[in-house]
Design a protein that fits this description.
With 263 residues, this protein is an all-alpha fold. The chain has 9 helices and no strands. It has helices spanning 2-35, 42-54, 57-81, 88-126, 129-135, 140-179, 183-193, 196-222, 228-262. The longest helix is centred in the middle third of the chain and has 40 residues, at 140-179. The N and C termini lie far apart (55 Å).
């Protein structure tokens, strides 16, 4: 009997998971349909870009700076043992630009932006503000959802570039103190090590990261269940689901990039 109950619970979990994937896919399809229809909410879009970009700068800067410091401090003793400390700028720059910078910045923004979108739209759903917009003839999906998803898609690559630059500066400070490396020498080695094959895949997947953050946050908030407890659930689940989706997207991006490198 207990085995049968466990099997039924697993089946129900799988069913609910597949239903949620289907609803999220339909939600994404509706976003693409609404994006090309008039009217275009440019003012709300710009307001969301400012809100998401400007208010995340400090958090991204602090995180990137600490990543640059810690990564260089941890890697330097190992490179010293092999006499390869001169490769530090090249190794740090490639690691940060290709992988560490985009995924860490995306995870930070998932917690900062994704949860905020989920809580904001969830509270609007609970207090029936979205229903009021529908009754008044306004398209709440275009005004609330499309603008936020487009803003996260656009702003996350910019935040990634900013975080990468701060992380490289933090790495330079460690090298300057430990190895007396000048600013010009350090960044000459950084730019000599980087290629377009490092920048382009990282930039492209940053757009997908931003789209995933906005999509899941809006989906969880827009379909928030009634009650104040639903707002907290929407904000929490937005972060959890987005984090899982970011790792899946990152794996796919690395897999596809390696295929093109092997050709």
């Amino acid at each position: 009997m207990m085995l049968m109950n466990a099997i039924f619970k697993i089946i129900e979990l799988i069913k609910s998971f597949l239903l949620e994937i289907g609803e999220l896919s339909y939600f994404a399809g509706r976003f693409f349909r609404e994006s090309f229809r008039r009217p275009f909410e440019f003012k709300e879009f710009l307001r969301q870009c400012f809100y998401m970009g400007n208010r995340s700068l400090l958090l991204v800067a602090v995180t990137g700076f600490i990543i640059g410091l810690v990564f260089t401090l941890q890697s330097r003793p190992t490179l010293l043992e092999f006499g390869a400390v001169s490769w530090m700028p090249s190794m740090v720059s490639i690691s940060i630009i290709r992988e560490i910078g985009p995924i860490i910045t995306a995870l930070i923004c998932a917690g900062r932006i994704g949860s905020g979108i989920g809580a904001e739209l969830g509270s609007m759903r609970v207090t029936e503000q979205i229903d009021a917009m529908e009754v008044s003839g306004t398209n709440p999906f275009k005004y609330l959802v499309v603008t936020r998803i487009m803003a996260t898609t656009l702003m996350l690559p910019l935040l990634v570039f900013f975080g990468d630059a701060i992380a490289l500066f933090g790495s330079y400070l460690v090298e300057n103190v430990k190895g007396h490396v000048s600013f010009l020498l350090y960044f000459n080695q950084v730019f000599n090590a980087l290629e377009f094959g490092d920048l382009i895949p990282a930039t492209i997947k940053s757009f997908f990261f931003g789209f995933a953050i906005g999509l899941v946050g809006c989906f969880k908030g827009y379909y928030c269940k009634k009650g104040t407890a639903g707002v907290g659930v929407a904000a929490n689940s937005a972060v959890v689901y987005t984090s899982m989706l970011l790792f899946i997207i990152d794996f796919i991006a690395v897999f596809v990039t390696n295929i093109f490198y092997d050709l």
